[in-house]
Amino acid sequence: MTGSNKSKTRRVLIASSHPLFGQGLRSLLQERSEAGVEVVGIVASLDEALDALEKLHPDLVIVDYDDENMNRDEFLARFVEGKRKLRVVLLSLQSGKDALVYDRRTLAASQIDNWLEEWTYTDEPQGLSGVPSVDGPGAHLKAAKRRNNMKHFAIVAVLVVVITALLIMGLNYVQLLPAQASAQAVPIDSLFNLEFKVIAFLFALIVVFMVYSIVVFRRKSGDLKDAVNMQGNTRLEVAWTVAPLVTVIFLAYLGGQSLASTLRAEPNPLKVKVIGQQWSWRFEYPDLGIVSDTLRLPVKKQALLLLSSVDVIHSFWVPQFRVKQDALPGGDAFVKDLRVTPTELGQYQLLCAELCGERHTYMTAPVIVSSQADFDAWVASETSASNDPVTRGQKVAQTNGCLGCHSIDGSKRVGPTLMGLAGSTVPLNDGSSVTADEAYLKESTVDPNAKIVQGFPPGVMPGNYGQKLTDQQIADVIAFINSLK
Fold it and tell me: What are the pLDDT digits (tens) for 432-442?
């Protein structure tokens, strides 16, 4: 307590015709004489109170609420609603009752002692929270409340900053995103990282305010009164409407910039047709005359991927490249573009990000990013013709998705295994059987629904291989199947 607080004496007048009320309250207040409380008198009627007011100049009048000799309404009219710089408290000491103040708010009896300390230790005269005065209703209490609120706000602000920083450090530590491997990943990761920080801040803002309120503003022991009824706060409602709106618009603007960066075209890109079908990928290099089941790209050179599908919707996604695009059936009119500029050497895995059927999980393909020299060497090896029909047939089977449905090790997949198929007796769904000679193998390639193998549903294998493959390619595939004895 400062010296100025000690030097300010609070003068109290007690108005009650009940001796026990007056003397008991005097004893209570006299215990605070060192704190600057002085009982200047006890009066038993309104007239005595008026006389004492002129002579004693009290700062506070405490009126016995239960004293029928005291006209409470007249006290309020003469002392509070008049021009006197004075506070009046109507106080009941009867069991089970609370202290009633001028504005009809109530305090539990356990709070009266706290109020006396607050009233005593304040430099300027003030009354119970909410009690008006002529020289500015509640001005000092409002200032004190404002300072108290600012203290809580400062504590919460510091906690929000600390928790946000810890969350951001934790998110950076766990590495939510895989390593970057393309130029398109840079703006995308920049936007992701900003959003992670915003999310960490919002989480801290909500949780810190909630936990702090629960701990600091919980109901005190013995406080049984109802909470304050809050009807609304216009400034708060405007803030929580405008702030999220501005944030969303700003993030949308950054998202547009990021999208523009990923779509930016470079001169002379490497064109690759990416064809998805259940359940494999095929990559065609139209300018190089190469068909492969592995996507090979030179580092630091943009590739223009032309995505399409033979059957259902698939989705091209290499996590390290970040970009993703659907591959749609329907021909050339539905081909989608996707630009990728690899920046890191290595091998990655292409995933299908669209649920596309029974073996969707296995619809993967290797993606190899190599130096330009290694890429050129691969192109040279792929364009050199092979004299072995089995080797050529295996490549055709791999690049056209045959091995995605037909195993070569005897295991059962969507279609029957190719191992040991050539020359065997094949049972059919209609109860008959057929020998798997070259005529049957060719017929099953170009018209797969002509003879359905027992235990396998019809209509699964695409019927367009007769148009996709040349007679030589079909012959090479049959040679490959004949080799799987």
Answer: 888 878 888 88
